[in-house]
């Protein structure tokens, strides 16, 4: 708590018969004008003011925030807690253990490396849909998951006992964001014994950072939190504030309400398209206006969840009566519910639909304008109206390089059967995007290539072709936390079964809810049998298909896809559909609501126009259309109201940390330092602190570097550090084989993140990565320069460069590092030998992660690109302006020397934006900085 209290903010709040200490925002003049999210940051500064890390000047800077010109003021944000999932949590624990070892080596106390704030880790990313479509699928997948991941889980069990403030939610419980929303989220700290235990409990807003980019899902509950890389989260655990520049805040003003038949998923896909088009990367988004009252809490969480898909740091809803009702509905204690309401009203944080705070920009959305939609086939922001889906897919099969938005805009504009109902095309500049091949104007029928392959699957002789659906998955935190869309999917399944419809035999169907509450209310509504009959049997409680844990296709289907080199599709109720992420054999991946996932399983093809074509025939031989089985909003609400109650949440989460027999039978290693096993292929001691001294080295120029990869636009962290399956012939696969691991036990890249040897070999290994140094190839390939003509893996090339002492850089286009907040995209980059990345623009989290690993993020100056500067990636690059500097400069000179010809120079911007980030880079990374801080404490 504040040791200075310069503004006399400390006061007492009485709620019922209890008193709380709190820090009044109205002690700061003009604070009422601030957006809700900035009020939370202001309280954070008031409460943590110590005159050193948090100063009165920071408080004044935030209080004086100028919506239109935010300036360059840095503030220090101290989150109340940290949320982890196991893919990012395991390497986080590995890093902390390595820090303990390094602390000991430097003569310090290993116990100095210990979480100082609550850390909650949910094991949710490791279950794979190996078995599907059967009553025993859940147990089969759970047993396989545990057997494969014993080493990782043993590390987490050890951490649970070795670290303070570290709790683990065992596997097969739920997805971290849904558990966070339904159970972990406090909204306001101070109730239920979560205060300091000394004097009056302190009431303050629940805030967090999480090592999953979809952490902003909790924004729907009025909790400020966002995704960070694991290394930044580790620093926060150890008491290091999060450094950020005062952000711009975009107000999303909602009007109206959703029309009949439009789902929360349709809404969030529309918001993703709108805000990506607006440009909100690195900004806060805050939802306000009269339409907010018409958005249920679960729908708010759905919007918050998708924040990284349009690039914002967060998308937050203020506290209102809906928040209070949800807390009661999910079984939070009366004491907490009362505190949340009283605190929000006392601090001016209660939503007033008639009050508009000051915003940097206001974007308006009429909810009644939203229509049923899907998004894809490669990016979440590429929304396609459902009415245009079959035509758009056909056009993309005809020309895979065509721009989705051009296709849908042209179709919408010229075909009278598809009215122009999308509100965002009118002001869109389409001149800089690729038009479809042949000058398509929307009037011609697409001539997509057909190559049907015969197969027998499940006893059925059938055919599959380009554009057919081979995966239909109800999965992901985004939608499985939302009772309305989940009940909607189950009711649609019931109606389909009653009509005699079946899922197509070539479709791999799966149900992976975000928590056990979902299956509880399915059972109570007596809807589970209908989902089972369509093959949507429970496969696990976790992030499956959306993270790439979709499991293999049936052998017959996989063989047919390969034999015909087919472009087939996955349809999932997730938030990510990047290239190579969902499944290596699905080149098209579409995001859709859970009811539409079921509908596409029935249709079996993206060529079926769900608005006009029948899904099949009923028992009388009559055609059945989607409109015949789509449940009404009133019917969905009736089932939700009658089948879901608070008791289901309190009982479901009463033993959330207990675990099953598998979990509890794991032996727990003893000691404050972890006992590394040399033969482990899951958990290895990382090399980040090898040779580290108590003081940082001086800044140095980068001389005669070679380009490891020259990449285009929209390269995601999935391209850089894939999470899915490991192929047998890849460098990572060869490493595992050499260490005695059978192919069926390779598991995923995500599960192997505790072993840097696997992850180095997996960096830039995405099967859809296109490196311009080796045109015409896909995958993690490059060539060794100068003069190399042979195509080699990026890992092998990096080893050859390392042997010759050659530093490396990466060149990229726009939106480099978009997507997941995976620190391994930066860790792998530095371990391959890359000293810098030169890109046209960065997504926020990856830029921070690069700095956190000591990689220099450079940005082309305004108007410059690799193309305009004539860079082909075969040159040597020398970056000057660092050596001899006490601080990191704002720009550097890049000298480019072709193997033949004259050298040339240009200036690049150093994207190290805050003084704290400059400290991290000077120390070679955030972990080295924090370790030295703890050593000298």
N→C terminal distance: 19 Å
- Strands ordered across the widest β-sheet: 26-29-30-31-34-33-32
Number of strands: 34
Q: Which structural class do you get from the secondary structure elements? A: alpha/beta
Task: Give the helix/strand layout.
Elements: E1 10-15, E2 18-23, H1 36-48, H2 56-63, E3 74-77, E4 81-85, H3 86-105, E5 119-122, H4 137-148, H5 150-162, E6 166-169, H6 176-184, E7 188-189, E8 204-205, E9 207-210, E10 224-227, H7 230-237, E11 242-245, E12 249-255, H8 264-278, E13 284-288, H9 297-305, H10 307-310, E14 314-316, H11 321-329, H12 334-346, E15 361-366, E16 373-375, E17 383-385, H13 389-398, H14 404-414, E18 453-457, E19 460-464, E20 469-474, H15 477-480, H16 483-499, E21 508-511, H17 516-524, H18 528-533, H19 555-563, E22 568-572, E23 586-591, H20 594-603, E24 616-617, E25 623-624, H21 626-629, H22 633-643, H23 646-652, H24 661-664, E26 702-710, H25 717-720, H26 731-738, H27 756-762, E27 781-782, E28 792-793, H28 794-803, E29 808-811, H29 824-831, E30 834-839, H30 844-852, E31 856-860, E32 876-880, E33 891-897, E34 904-910, H31 915-922, H32 926-935
Parallel strand pairs: 4-5, 4-9, 5-6, 9-10, 12-13, 12-15, 13-14, 20-21, 20-22, 22-23, 26-29, 29-30, 30-31
Antiparallel strand pairs: 1-2, 3-11, 7-8, 16-17, 18-19, 24-25, 26-32, 27-28, 31-34, 32-33, 33-34
Helix pairs in contact: 1-2, 3-7, 8-9, 11-12, 13-14, 16-20, 16-22, 26-27, 27-29, 29-30, 31-32
């Amino acid at each position: 708590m504040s040791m200075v209290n310069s503004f006399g903010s400390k006061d007492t709040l009485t709620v019922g018969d209890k008193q709380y200490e709190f820090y009044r925002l109205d002690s700061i003049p003009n604070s009422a004008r601030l957006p809700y999210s900035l009020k939370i940051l202001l309280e954070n500064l008031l409460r943590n003011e110590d005159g050193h890390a948090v100063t009165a000047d920071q408080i004044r800077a935030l209080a004086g925030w100028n919506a239109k010109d935010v300036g360059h003021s840095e503030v220090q944000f101290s989150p109340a807690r940290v949320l982890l999932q196991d893919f990012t949590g395991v390497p986080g624990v590995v890093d902390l253990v390595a820090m303990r070892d390094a602390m000991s080596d430097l003569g310090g106390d290993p116990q100095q490396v210990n979480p100082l704030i609550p850390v909650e880790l949910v094991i949710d990313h490791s279950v794979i849909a190996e078995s599907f479509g059967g009553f025993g699928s859940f147990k089969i997948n759970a047993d396989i998951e545990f057997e494969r991941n014993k080493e990782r889980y043993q590390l987490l069990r050890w951490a649970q006992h070795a670290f303070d403030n570290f709790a683990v939610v065992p596997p097969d419980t739920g997805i971290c964001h849904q558990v966070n929303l339904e159970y972990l989220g406090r909204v306001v700290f101070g109730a239920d014994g979560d205060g300091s235990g000394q004097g009056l409990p302190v009431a303050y807003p629940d805030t967090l950072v999480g090592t999953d980019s979809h952490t902003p899902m909790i924004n729907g509950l009025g909790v400020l939190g966002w995704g960070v890389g694991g290394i930044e989260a580790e620093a926060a655990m150890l008491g290091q504030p999060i450094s950020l520049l005062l952000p711009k805040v975009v107000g999303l003003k909602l009007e109206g309400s959703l029309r009949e038949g439009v789902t929360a998923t349709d809404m969030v896909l529309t918001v993703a398209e709108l805000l990506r088009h607006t440009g909100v990367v690195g900004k806060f988004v805050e939802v306000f206006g009269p339409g907010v009252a018409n958005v249920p809490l679960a729908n708010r969480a759905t919007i918050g969840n998708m924040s990284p898909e349009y690039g914002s740091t967060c998308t937050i809803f203020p506290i209102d009566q809906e928040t209070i009702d949800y807390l009661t509905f999910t079984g939070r204690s009366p004491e907490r519910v009362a505190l949340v309401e009283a605190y929000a009203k006392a601090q001016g944080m209660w939503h007033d639909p008639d009050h508009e705070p000051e915003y940097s920009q206001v974007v308006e959305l009429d909810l009644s304008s939203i229509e049923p939609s899907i998004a894809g086939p490669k990016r979440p922001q590429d929304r396609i109206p459902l009415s245009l889906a079959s035509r758009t897919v056909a056009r993309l099969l005809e020309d895979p390089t065509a721009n989705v938005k051009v296709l849908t805009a042209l179709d919408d504009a010229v075909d009278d059967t598809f009215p122009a109902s999308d509100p965002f095309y009118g002001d869109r500049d389409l001149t800089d995007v690729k038009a479809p091949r042949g000058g398509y104007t929307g009037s011609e029928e697409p001539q997509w290539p057909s190559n049907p392959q015969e197969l027998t699957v499940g006893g059925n002789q059938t055919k599959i072709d380009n554009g057919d659906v081979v995966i239909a998955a109800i999965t992901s935190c985004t939608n499985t936390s939302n009772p309305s869309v989940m009940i909607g999917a189950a009711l649609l399944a019931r109606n389909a079964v009653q009509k005699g419809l079946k899922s197509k035999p070539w479709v791999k169907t799966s149900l992976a809810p975000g928590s056990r509450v979902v299956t509880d209310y399915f059972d109570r509504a007596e809807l589970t049998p209908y989902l089972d009959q369509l093959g949507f049997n429970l496969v696990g409680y976790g992030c499956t298909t959306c993270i790439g844990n979709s499991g293999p296709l049936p052998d017959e289907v996989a063989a047919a896809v390969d034999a015909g080199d087919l472009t087939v599709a996955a349809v999932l109720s997730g938030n990510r559909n990047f290239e190579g992420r969902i499944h290596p054999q699905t080149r098209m991946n579409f995001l859709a609501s859970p009811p539409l996932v079921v509908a596409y399983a029935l249709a079996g093809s993206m060529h079926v126009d769900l608005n006009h074509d029948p899904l099949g025939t009923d028992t009388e031989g009559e055609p059945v259309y989607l409109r015949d089985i789509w449940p009404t909003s009133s019917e969905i609400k009736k089932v939700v109201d009658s089948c879901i109650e608070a008791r289901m949440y309190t009982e479901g989460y009463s033993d959330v940390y207990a675990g099953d027999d598998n979990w509890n039978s794991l032996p727990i290693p003893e000691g404050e330092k972890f006992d590394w096993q040399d033969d482990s292929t899951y958990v290895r001691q990382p090399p980040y602190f090898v040779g580290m001294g108590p003081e940082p080295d001086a800044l140095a120029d980068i001389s005669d570097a070679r380009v490891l990869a020259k990449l285009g636009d929209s390269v995601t962290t999935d391209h850089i550090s894939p999470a899915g399956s490991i192929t047998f012939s890849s460098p990572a696969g060869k490493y595992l084989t050499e260490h005695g691991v059978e192919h069926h036990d390779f598991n995923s890249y995500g599960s192997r993140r505790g072993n840097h040897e696997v992850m180095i070999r997996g960096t830039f290994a995405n099967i859809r990565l296109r490196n311009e140094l080796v045109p015409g190839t896909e995958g993690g390939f490059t060539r060794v320069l100068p003069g190399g003509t042979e195509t080699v893996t990026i890992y092998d090339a990096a080893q050859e460069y390392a042997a010759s002492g050659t530093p490396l850089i990466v060149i990229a286009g726009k939106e480099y590092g978009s997507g997941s907040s995976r620190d391994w995209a930066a860790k792998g980059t530095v371990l391959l030998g890359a000293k810098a990345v030169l890109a046209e623009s960065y997504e926020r989290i990856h830029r921070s992660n690069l700095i956190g690993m000591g990689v220099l993020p450079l940005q082309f100056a305004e108007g410059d690109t690799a193309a305009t500067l004539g860079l082909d990636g075969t040159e040597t690059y020398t970056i000057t302006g660092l050596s001899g500097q006490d601080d990191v400069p704002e720009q550097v000179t890049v000298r480019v020397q072709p193997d033949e010809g004259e050298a040339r120079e240009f200036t690049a911007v150093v994207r190290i934006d805050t003084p704290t980030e400059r400290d991290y880079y000077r120390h070679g990374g955030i972990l080295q900085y924090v370790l030295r801080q703890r050593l000298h404490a």
